[in-house]
Design goal:
The chain has about 500 residues and is an alpha/beta fold. Helices cover about 40% and strands about 20% of the residues. It starts with 6 loop residues before the first strand and ends in an 18-residue tail after the last strand. Bound molecules: nicotinamide-adenine-dinucleotide. The site of nicotinamide-adenine-dinucleotide has 26 residues, from helix 8.
Length: about 500
Amino acid sequence: MTDSSPRELTHFIGGKHVSGTSGRFSDVFDPSTGEVQARVPLASTEEMAAAIANAEEAQVGWGATNPQKRARVLMKFVELINKDALELAKTLSREHGKTVDDAKGDIQRGVEVVEFAIGAPHLLKGEYSSAAGTGIDVYSMRQPLGVVAGITPFNFPAMIPLWKMGPALAAGNSFILKPSERDPSVPLRIAELFLEAGLPAGVLNVVNGDKEAVDAILHDDRVKAVGFVGSTPIAQYIYETAAQNGKRAQCFGGAKNHMIVMPDADLDQVADALIGAGYGSAGERCMAISVAVPVGKETGDALAAKLTERVKALRIGPALAESVDYGPLITAEALQRVEGYIQTGIDEGATLLADGRGYTVEGYENGFYLGPTLFDNVSTDMTVYKEEVFGPVLFIARADDYEQALAMASDHEFGNGVSIFTRDGDAARDFSARVNVGMVGVNVPIPVPIAYHTFGGWKKSGFGDLNQHGPDAFRFYTKTKTVTSRWLSHDLKEGASFVIPTMH
Ligand code: NAD
């Protein structure tokens, strides 16, 4: 292998870097240059089974460790990752293509959930009822599930793995992470940092792979729960397969987030919010705003003019450069797919106000860049309105009135996030209560809830019963055991009873 050959990445199993043995690899690109920078091994069913065996063995001791001690490991991890944050952010940017500042946010939002999970001793407390009957006390306890797994997407390679492993580990489970094969280096580093923080070897394992590795998780009885984030078809497949195999599953999918712009909104604020939320991270965020819904013709015309002006000023370039608003897309295929949607939008009759196709950055001609693209007059029957595009493309779909705008967001098959910009508290309140979407922003374009609330979309954006992070995460990663105990007084002799006990 020459010096210019791509690095060969590993798995992280049993506290050690382990080379892949399947003979199958996937290229990891530097999207800014278009070059292959590494090769990631794709685990076989046997490799995954070995990792699960390791995790199962390690879980016994970890699950029996008291929650305060487990929380201390998480505390130490937070200290270590904060020290390493800039280097980690650069690694993330190099593989993902988002700017370094944005990558720091990716890490920080993940760390916030680990910080929340440090409260595990409190969050794991059960309930107690004394004297529920004569001599009877009832109490419940939350116990770890055992081995649990996370399967995560490319677009938040730090945040989403941390959202899953933080609460899962704090609750006493061992964890198998199958990160995205597009940008696996940050998850591997996170596993190293957890080991350094004192997590016993084998409690956290990173197994790289594709469908074969995922299916190995889904069909292994030793894995008790699966947390997934990614595209909707895969979310649905994983939810159904995991459920058929008796596992707990929470699977979050794609999105098409609307921002309703009321006529009384400050349109400069709205335009700035839309530019950041629509084009930040090249639109590769599940909470990106992809549809602006101005209410009324006057609002629509003024907003379209303000957005067109701002779009021209956006700076696109390599992820590690300074003064860049957003970087390249993740792969050449992703670029091609989004460019295909732009053509579809034109063919369907939407008005193209800015065309980002064919964008090149000097010195980085092979990078996967796409300029900001803006469409007006998009209607709800168009493919580009119905499907997730996942790129720097913003669609203006005008509404005649508030009720029509509300119905658009509510009727869309995705229900991840939605936002309303208005100065009218009554409209905002009505909208928040009635809209059929899981996460709502009022004058907030990207309403990702803070760590101690929960995150989860509705409809085709989420399958399963509980949300990510916040108290729901501890419900998802634990099983509740309820104990009914009776200490009989010597003089209380009731004899055998053949009826169901009641509180009579
Ligand atoms: P993806 O569905 O292609 O991949 C996600 C994970 O599933 C990866 O680990 C991948 O290896 C695995 N996978 C891919 N194909 C598979 C198959 N056929 N069988 C089993 N496993 C498979 O998603 P992506 O492109 O990495 O991420 C982008 C998508 O994720 C977008 O749709 C975005 O909206 C969504 N997303 C959703 C949320 C949310 O919270 N709802 C958050 C982030 C991203």
